[in-house]
Write a structure and sequence with these properties.
It is built from five helices and two strands; from the N terminus they run ααααββα. By secondary structure, the chain is mostly helical. The protein has one domain: Winged helix-like DNA-binding domain superfamily/Winged helix DNA-binding domain (Arc Repressor Mutant, subunit A, Orthogonal Bundle), CATH 1.10.10. It has a two-stranded antiparallel sheet with strand order 1-2. Helix 1 packs across helix 5 and helix 3 packs across helix 4. The radius of gyration is 24 Å and the shape is rod-shaped.
Length: about 120
C-alpha cells in the first residue's frame, strides 16, 4: 500500500479541523501537553466517549498520536508533522495566488503607464 500524498494528508487534516470539539481538544493538548481521555474529560465539558471518538479522528488525520499505555491510561500528544503538511499545501496555494496577483499588478501597471502616455500626448 503506497503512502498517501501530501494533498490527501492535507485534506484529512482540514477535514479533522472542521469540528470545533476537535479544535478544542487540540488547543487543550497544545496548552497543557499530553493528556489521557480521562484528563481531557475533566478539563472540557465533553464525555469521555466523545473525546475518545474525536481523538481517534484526530489520530487518523495524523494530528495527535497516542503514547505508550500506562495501565489503562494512554496519553495523547500533538503531532506537528500533519500541521506542517497542511502548511506546505497552503503555502503552495498562496504562492500560486501571489504569482497571479503579481501578474495582475504588472498588467495594471502597464495599462496605467500606457494611459498616462496617451493622456500626456493629447495634452
Amino acid at each position: 500500500m503506497r503512502p498517501p500524498d501530501a494533498e490527501a494528508r492535507a485534506v484529512a487534516v482540514f477535514a479533522a479541523l472542521t469540528d470545533p470539539t476537535r479544535r478544542a481538544l487540540l488547543e487543550e493538548l497544545a496548552r497543557a501537553g499530553p493528556a489521557t481521555v480521562t484528563d481531557l474529560a475533566r478539563r472540557l465539558p465533553i464525555s469521555r466517549q466523545a473525546i475518545a471518538k474525536h481523538l481517534d479522528r484526530l489520530a487518523e488525520a495524523g494530528l495527535v498520536s497516542a503514547g505508550e499505555p500506562a495501565g489503562r491510561r494512554r496519553p495523547y500528544r500533538l503531532d506537528p508533522a500533519a500541521i506542517r503538511t497542511a502548511q506546505v499545501w497552503l503555502a503552495r496555494l498562496a504562492t500560486r495566488w501571489d504569482d497571479r496577483l503579481a501578474a495582475l499588478e504588472h498588467a495594471l501597471d502597464v495599462t496605467d503607464t500606457t494611459k498616462e502616455s496617451r493622456d500626456h500626448e493629447q495634452a
